[in-house]
Structures are given as structure tokens and as C-alpha cells.
Amino acid sequence: MSRVRVFLTAVLVLAALLVFAQQEVLPGIARNEVLIIEDPSGRSTNPGRFNLWGGGVSSWSTGLQQLCLGTLWYIDPDEGIEGEPWINLLAAEPPIYNDDYTKMTVRLRKGIYWSDGVPFTADDVVFTVETLKAHPEMTWGAYMQVNVEKVYKTDDYTVVFELKKPNGRFHTIFTVRWAACYIMPKHIFEKVDDVVAFDFNPPVGTGPYVLKSYDPNGYWFLWELRSDWERSDLGVVYGVKPGAKYVLYKGIASPEKKVMDQMAHELDIIHDLPPESAIALYKSNPYCVTWFDGWPWAHPDPTLPSIIMNHEQYPYNMKEVRWALTLAIDIVQVALQAYNGCATISPIHIPPTGLYPKWYFDKIEPWLKEFTIKVGNKEFKPYDPEIPVKIANAVKYAFGYDVPQDPNEIKKMVGYGWWKYAPDVAEELLKSVGFTKKGGKWYRPDGKPWKIHILCEAATRSVMTRAAVAIAEQWRKFGIDADIEAVEPSMLWQRMNYGQDPDTVYWAWCIETWGGHPDLFWFLESWHSEYYRPTGQTVVAKNPMRYKSEKIDKVIEDLRKTDFFKEIDKIIELGLEYVKVCVEDMPIIPVFSYNVFTVCDGYYWTGYPTAKNPYTNPVPNWGNTRFMFIKIQPTGRK
Amino acid sequence: MRAFFKYAVTRFLICLLVIFIGVTITFVIPRLIPGANPAEVVIRRLQMAGTYLPPESVEKMKEALLKLYGLEGSLFQQYLRFWKEFLRGNLGPSFASFPTPVIKLIATSLPWTVGLLALTTVVSWLSGTILGGIAGFRKRGLFMKILEIFANAVRPIPYYILALLLLILFAYVLRLLPTGGAYQIGLSPSLSWKYISSVIKHGLLPALSLIILGIGGWFLNMRNLVSAVLQEDFVDFAFLMKLDESVIFRFYTMKAALPPQLTGLALQLGMIFNGTIITEIVFNYPGLGTLIYTAIMQSDYNLVMGVTLFSIVAVAFATFLIDISLPLIDPRVQYSGSSV
Amino acid sequence: MGFLHPVFSAIRRLFKYDPRFRFAFIAIACLVVFAFLSIFSPYDPRSSYYAPISQPPSLKHIFGTNGRGQDLFWLLTFAMKNSLIFSLEVALLSRIIAIVVGITAGYKRGILDQILVLLCDSFIILPLFPLLVFLKLIMRQMSFSTLAIVLALFGWPWDARLIRSQVLSLRERVFTYSAIFSGRSLLSMIFSDYLPHILPITLATTVNNMLWSLGFEITLSILGLTPLDIPSMGTVTYWAIQQQAMVMGTWWWLAFPIGLLVLLFVALYFLFVSITDYINPKARIISR
Predict the structure, then answer these.
(1) Residue C208 domain-assigned?
(2) Shortest alpha-carbon distance between residue A556 and chain C (Å)
(3) Is the pLDDT of residue B335 over 60?
């Protein structure tokens, strides 16, 4: 009886499946008209809210900051769409400061219209700043309140800011690195009673796309090209029609799914993948486009994951200890295990990405090669410029990837060099400050066994977990009782900011830079001792290691006085000072840049940015990917 | 009848008490996490995303946010304020998605979770119970033995792997079913056949994976229960009286073995409000699982409370209903604190 | 140690006559031996990248190597050991609590029963997954032993209720009243009369409990919330998923751990089913 029933049900189900057999991506829209991009923020908890200024928007990269909202300036982390990283978008030219940096004048671009047909003018900028100033709970509200005394327009396309104190970098708030303060449409927000509660749905922006529809459950957002695209910001500046009629941003949590979707040509741009998947995808999809065509595939982001330790915690206050830990790390192994060798390493406290190799790395390399540390009465040169070649060879041996022969090529791909793997020197350094080694295990000068927990990210960024595991293993080999603890990213940042975990170092990042401009102010400002916060109080910005140095203070004070645009050489000079001080002190251990395996599919679309054509950053959640859309054109395949 | 009434009232009061305890625990625990202040979480998220927030602005913003969220005052004061609002039916705004009300966020995900999980729970319970009953009754059948082994073999497979395998097989290899989502991209909710059929089509794989996951447990439990019941004297008598086997099966065996199974069903139905985070991740399916996980990670106290509240109330009521209805089904059980 | 003798003879009887028990006994013994082999492992379970990556099973590496350059065979001996110990800890602890609470509540009834039921329900309604995430956030370091204790504290209420219901119905039976009237002590009655009825349920719930705790361990590991550098069935699965074993074609990385788990549970099931049937004399004779 039951057997017959089961069989009948099976037949019915199969029949039903066959009836439903046809699949469509979008009703009524041809596949080759849609550019499908992954939004790494996944499922948006509150998809109907687009008011970035009011906060409470869980994902800015649903297309909102890439296609819709715009702001005055962009600094491209790579070369920039016209070969120049600095881009004037809503502004017509760079900002004009007065002599003591208390006044900033901005000339806006003419001819740009909001997507609902209203012209973009100085009124919008003034309104944005005044609204923010009045509401410190808004995203950039506190910043405006602290910095802006008065803002007004002198004509429809010129805005003047009067600042409360000299600030030569005030313009950075409107300069997109990943995001920035976007401009609100005055004609919409002025009609609203509560600017914080207002949802701004549908969003209206100066960008070339409008929101067509979105998933109330937050998994996808569909944007359509404006019929008046030539009046959008990109249209006015470049005059080129974006190639994709529709752009779809999807949140996909499972990496296996992303791979399978792209193999079936249902996903055009994947934000990030674990190395093996990216490489497997590259090998099996003939249309695959990655930043580097071949090893090391990934795009280096201007962020520098490092081992961060709290200097208020014993024994990390001693630079010998920090250096010893550095010399006990075999970076070749770490690169292999974390990234399958596709990491871009950096020995100094600057990300090895964008134009920094030219500005900093080339200049500092001779000094690095000569740099010596004193161990007892011996001298030791810790820098090893051969490491990139070692990584290339190891990669070839372990994974069989094709690596170039020319060491200069290799340098461009994986970095200039790193610190030697010298556990014997590390031992002597430790012994010189009172550490002892008994039975292969290290004991601190106070007699306790040396334990280290490496706090790192868990499932979301597996390369970080893998690197932490590798480092822990090497330290264990060295004789330290090391293990890892993986937590959610927000937890990691929180604990790092408070710095209260005993025996813990943090595997995270605090150094982030423009990529397209040598100024280090972005993160370095908060290293000044006036912002210092002791353990137990949350760190103000980018100094979780609670590093205090008079030399660094001086560099920062000098940097503050430099002109962002006119004194590039001085900025680089100060930056090199900073590098030298940090190499001496080794406040944190820089490892590699955060390389993103952004994988694109060339089946339906072409024109993606690559290392050969680095006109912008392909990593799709960055605000600067805006410029991709005028270069990406259909291939014509159905 | 009076005894029953007195009993039902007592149980109901206990049910309310249990809800109260659960709510209090849910209120307190998120606030115990050191340094997980919602204002700081918001600021940190902005900083992690690369937004430039210079040092002095950070302090100011934190103060402003705390005031906005209404988080001033001691823990006890916040607790009292919470109950005041709650009894007025207001669950408050979500902090991470301020100022969207918590109810609105839950309302979008709730129907999907309830729909999917209620359906799959009932289906797997029914099939598992019936098949398990037959397996327990008829110990010799080869088909049943194979089913037994299969049911056991499937259970330890990690659900993520099981779901992925199904997805690969049906969506990518055979291309019979969609790869994810609750319904096709571009459609809007309506009562049209197009929308409804899309929902069904997109729900098949998640449902299938959940049914396979759940059926094993019900099957094995029922089989064991039936085995135990078969030891009873009254079953022997039924056989001795030469009653028809199907009658013995249905009325003497299944009915007697049902009470714990029904309890399990009721409890499981109560627990569907927890959502299934892995189903949501693998199939891009909307639901409460990811909602509550993200809420915890973002220290969104109100949202955590809101979602957990549903779960607590549902489970508490489920146990209450079990407690008052089981005495009616199993005559051997008495009213004074009886049932499972 | 007088009661050991009937236990041994029971085992011998089961082994001889019940093919299910035979299979189960041998399989579980093999798995325990497998876990025991971890003592002889030539490799440190926490080290990685000592062997060539992602090699299929061969003579040198019986189960192959995984994407982290670890020998899968030896890695799994540790994983099996850790997971077995973990789930046994949870099962044992929670059984003890469940039995004590269940019997007390069912037998004593009245106020004590109400209080215990209240306690049970308070635990049942708390959604475990969010709670575990919270505890992890509060406690920071969550070792496997801590996790075991927490799971044990949440694994008993459901089964306590089951046992309680069983005891409630047993209490009303004739043999209870006759025992009370004939003046038998409570404890001896519980042990000799109730236990045989409770044991089947307890054993069945133990299997469920072990599965449940292992499932939880795996789910938490997949989200990265357990100590990831210590091998357990959950963390091995975590790494296999992280390094995309399914997409990469390194099927053995997933197949062997899952295979071992399946073997374990099928064997456990048969073990308990055959013991249950043995305890109930009628079932031995009459199988319909």
C-alpha cells in the first residue's frame, strides 16, 4: 500500500519538475543586457532604506554608492580612468584652500542633473553640509560639526567652506577612497520632517542608473540605465554611454554557489573567493578575467593586514620582542598557506599597492637592504630581497602554477621582499631582554610560560584564518605556546579596540591608505599621542596598538602642515621618515596587502579593469568602481 | 471537568511565567557582552567599511547615537522601559537599521520561515511517523530494513553538505530547479499564478533538504516507540483475540505510540521561529535565521529581543497545548502535572 | 562486582544470536580502535602542510591528503577521538541530569514536579543557537570541554520530560501500587522495576543526543566558532568547506569523515536497537 503511494508521489513530483523545467534570470530582460555583480555584504537586512546619511543602512554596495549617489572627488586606488588617480566628478576642479587652510572653495561641475530631472547645484552641497552639521548622529554629522564654521554659496556652482580650525585635509571627507560623504538632493530632503528617519526610497542620485526594483528580502537590487544618461555625472564628464542597460547586484553567501553561477555564466563579477576556487574557476572557464592573467590573479587592495599587539601589554612593549616575533615568521610559508602564494607581501608599514611601489618602495629599498639591528654585540641585516623569488619557486613546486622568470616581474606581483626567517637571531634578541628557553619552550622574564592567542576572523574571510593558523604554527615551532581564536569580524575589531584580552595579539589591519595618493594622513593622524587612549577605553581610530612615539608625532605634525596637492614630494619625504621609524620600532608586524580574488566573466561583457589596463579597482563594492561602467561593453553573445 | 480546568489554568500561568523568564534572560544577555554597545558597533562598522571618521567626530557621534537609541540609564531602568513599551505592543526600533521598527524587519522574513519550516516539519513528521510505525510493526520486511539503514545513514551528514549536494545535483547538473532565492528576480509579490508557481519552484529544494534532514529522526523515534508498545499486554491480547492486523496496527499500536511523537511535533513547530541559518545561506532564502545571527553580531538588542520573543512565545505555547491535550489522548496519564 | 557476570553473558548471547548486535559491536570497536590509533600518529594534529596537497588515497596516505597538506587518515583518528569524547561527555552529563530530574518529577508529583517542569520549560524555550553565539561572545575562549558542558546543560530538558511522562504512566500501574503496599523501598523499586522501562527511552535519546551535539558542533564549526586548529569532525568539515573541497574535486576530504560518521551512527543505532530488544523479553521471541 505505502509502496505504491510512494511511487506515485515520485512520479508526480518528477512530472511537476519537468513542467517547471525552463529557467529565466529576469522576466522580460535579455541576459546579455544585464551585468550581474555580487554584493559581498550579502543579504541586506533593511533593503527598503537608502538614506546613507541617516544611518541604519546595512549595505551601501547594493549599487547605491556605485551607480547612484556621487560626490565631489574620487581617488582611484589604481591608475584612474584617464591615467590620473585624482578624479573630479561633481566638482570641476580640485579644492582651493586659502593660505592658512581655514577656507576651502569648491567649484562645481555644470550640466549635471539628478535622476529625477532637477539640476545639481551648489544648493545641494550647502544643504547637505548644513543638515549634517545640525545632526551629529548622522554619519558625517559629527565631522561637519567639528570642522565647519560656516558654509555658503557664492553662485550656483561655487561653494565656500569656512573652517573652525586650519585643516588642509578637510576635502578628504568628500573624496571617495571606498566611500565618502555623498551629496544629498536638496529638493527631496527639504520636504522631509525627520531627515534621520526618512528612508529615501526610491533613491535619487547623480549617477547614470536608477533603481528599477529590489528584493524586499534584501537579496538583490536591479538598476536601469537612465534615459538621460548624458546628463548624469559620468555622462557629463566622459560623454560615454555605459554599456550595460541593467545592472543587478546580488548577495550570495556561499562561495560554492558563486563558482557554479559563474561557470554557468549567470554571474559576471564575483567579489571575492577563497584562492582555490578562484584558481579552479580560472582554469575551467575560458572566458575568465582576473586582475593578473595567471599567478597571482588577485587584486591588491590598499589595506595592510598585520599582527597587531597592544603596547600596554607586557611583553609587547619591548621592541626586541616584537622584532623577535617578526624574525620567527617564515613569510614564504604564510603566503603559501594563506593565499596559495598569491599574496603581495610588504616589509614596511605601507600597503604594497597602487602607486606606492613607485613612491615609497622603490625609494626605501636601498635603505632597507642596509638596515641593521643590534643583537648583543653583533650586527644583523634582517631584510631579504630574495623572498619574492623564493615564494615564486615554492608556488611552482607546491601548486604547479606558471610563474615568470624575471625577478622584477615577480617583484611587481608579490612584493619587494620581507624580513629573513631567522629564529636563531630571534632567540638571541629574546635572551637579551631576559627570556629563557627551557625544554624547547619559551619563558618570559617574569618566569611565566609565553602564551599567545592570535585573534583572527572566522568564516567570512578564510584567508585571514589560514594565515593566522600558519603564523601560530610557526611560533609553536619556535617554542611559544600559540593558538588561534577565530571570531566574527565585528567582534575582532571591538576586542582589538579595547585591547583588554590577556596574552593576545590581533590579526587584523589598521593601516589603510588611498592607493592613488601618497598622503598617509588617512590613518596616520590617529597615531598622534593627543588621540592616545589607554587600554579599556575604545581606541579613537587607527591606533589599537597604542603606539606612542615622539618621532612619529613630529612626522604627523609636519604632515598636517603640508599641502595635499602641491607638496607631494614633501609628503613622500615625510612618509619615508615614517617608514624608517616604524622599521626601527616595529610597532606592528606588517605581513601582506589584503588581496581580493575578484573574478570576472568575459562571456557576456568585456572591458573589465586588469593589471594590464588598471583604469580602476575591479573590487565591486568600492565606490570607485563607478568608472567601470563606462568601459564595460557587451560582447554581443546571446 | 473541574480538575481539568484547574489544571489548565495552572499550566497557563506557568506558561506565562516561563515566557517572562525567557524574555528577561534574552534582555540581559546581549547587554552583558563586554563593549558591545550598539552605538560603538555602528561607528565601528562605518570605520571597517573605510569611512573616514576622524578622532574627535567619533566621540561626538557616539554620544549622539546613544541618545538617539534611548540607551541611557541603568540596566534596570532600560528593563522597565522595555516592558512598558512591550505591553503597548511596541517592540522598538532596530539599532543597526535605525529607525526601522523591529516589527517591520521581522514581518518581511517571518512568512518565509514559517511557511517553509511549518510545511517541511509536518511533511517529514507525517512520513517519518507512518514509515517508522510500519518499520516497528513489521520487523521482517526487507524494504523497511533498508529504509532504517538509510534513515540512519543520512542523519550524520552535515546539513550544509547535504544542502549543497542537492543544490549541485538539481540546480546545476540537472538544471531542473532554480539556484536560489525565494522567487524569481524581478517579480513582485502578488496573487498571480506566475508569482505563486515561482515561489513553489524556488521552495522545492530548500524544502527537500529540510525534509530529508528531519525525516530520519521521526522515523527512528516512532520505530522505537512502536517497538516498545508492542511489548505491552494489551497488544498481546489484541493478537490473541485474532483482531485484524491492520486494526491492531492502527488502533492498538500507532495510537498508543503517538503521544511522545505528537509532543515532539508540537515542540518542533514551536521552534520554527528560530529559522534555519544554513538553509538561508545555501539557498539565498529569506528567513529569521540570518536575521537573528546578524542582529547578534551587530548588538542590535531590540531585533534580537523581537525575534527571540516569537520563538519563546511559540515554544511556550506549544508546551502548554501539549500539556493540556495529552491527557485527552492518553488515558493512562492523569491531570496533576501529567504528560510529556 | 556480581552484576558484571550477567552483563557479560548477555553480551555473549547477543553476539551469538543477533546479527545486528554483532555488526554494531564490531563496527564500534573498530571505530574506538581507530580513535585510539591517534596515539601512534607520526604527525602533530595541529601542524599542517607537511604532506603534498590534495593527493587522492594512495599507499603512502591511506585516506589521501587534504588541501592543507595533512594526512587525512591520521588527522581523522584525532578528529574521531575528540568528537567521540565530546559527544559522550554531553550525552552522559545530560542523561544523568535528565534521569534524575525526570524520575523525581514523575514520581513525586505535586509542587516539586511543577517546579522541575518549570525549570525544564525555561531551558526548552531558550533558542539554543543564538544563546551559544552569545556565550561565545561573552566568554571569548570556548574550548571543546566548555562547549560540552553548555550543550549538556541544554540537552537534558527534552529527555527529562520524556522520562517524566514514562514515569508518570508507570506510577499509575498496578505493579507500583503493589510494590508500595508491600513496603518496598523507593530506590530499589526505581532501579529494578522502572529502569527497564526507562532504559530503552534513555538509550534511544542517547543516540539522538549524540547526533544532536555532533550536529551542533559541526554547525558552530562551519561558522568558525569552535577552536579551529584542533581536529574534530566539525573542524575537519569546516576546513573542507573553507577550501572548497566540493568544487575542487577533493571528494575524499569530505567522503571519509562523513563515511566514518555514518558508520558510527548506523552502528550505534543497531547497538541500541538490539540491546533494547534484548531487555524486553517478549520482543526476543515474537518478531512480527
Answers:
(1) yes
(2) 36
(3) no
Separation of alpha carbons C75 and C44, rounded Å:
9
Using CA atoms, how far residue A351 sits from A178, B41, B296, in Å, is 15, 26, 33
A203: helix, coil or strand?
coil
Among B45, B46, B187, the residue with its CB nearest the CB of A27 is B187
User: For residue A193, which phi and psi values (nearest 5 degrees)?
Assistant: -75, -50
According to the model, what pLDDT value does residue B339 have?
A: 40
C155 assigned to some structural domain: yes
Residues of chain A contacting residue B162, judged by C-beta atoms under 8 Å apart? none
Q: Which of C46, C137, C243 sits opposite A491 (nearest CB)?
A: C137
Q: Please report the ipTM that was assigned to this predicted complex.
A: 0.83
CA distance B162 to C258: 11
For residue C284, is it within any domain? no
Low-confidence ranges of chain A (pLDDT < 70): 1-25, 459
In angstroms, the CA C230 to CA A554 distance is 46
Beta strands in A39-169 (DSSP E): 73-75, 86-88, 96-97, 103-107, 148-155, 158-163
Looking at beta carbons, which residues of chain C come within 8 Å of B36? 137
Measured distance CA(A105)–CA(A171) in Å, rounded: 10
Structural domain boundaries, residue C154: 2-279
| Contacts with C67 from chain A: Cβ below 8 Å | 276
| Letter string b/e over residues A153-175, b meaning 16 or more CB atoms within 10 A of that residue's CB | beeebbbbbebeeebbbbbbbbb
Q: In CATH, what number is assigned to the domain containing residue C183? A: 1.10.3720.10
Strand ranges (E), C44-190: none
| Alpha carbon distance A68, A89 (integer Å) | 13
Does C247 contact A259 at a Cβ distance shorter than 8 Å? yes
**By CA distance, what is B195's nearest residue in A?**
A27
- Report yes or no: C223 at the A interface, CB cutoff 8 Å: yes
Segment C164-176 mean pLDDT: 72
Q: Report which of A614, A612, A606 is spatially closest to residue A631, judged by C-alpha positions.
A: A606
Overall number of domains in chain C? 1
Looking at per-residue confidence, does B145 or A388 come out higher? A388
Structural domain includes residue C140 = yes
Q: What is the pLDDT of residue A15?
A: 56
- A278/chain C closest Cα distance in angstroms: 10
Is the whole-model pTM more than 0.95?
A: no
Could you read off the pLDDT of B33-71 as tens digits, one per residue? 766 678 877 887 777 666 667 667 777 788 788 777 777
Please indicate whether, in this complex, the C-beta atoms of B61 and A137 are within 8 angstroms of each other: yes
**Cβ-Cβ contacts under 8 Å for B29 (sequence gap 6 or more):** C131, C134, C138
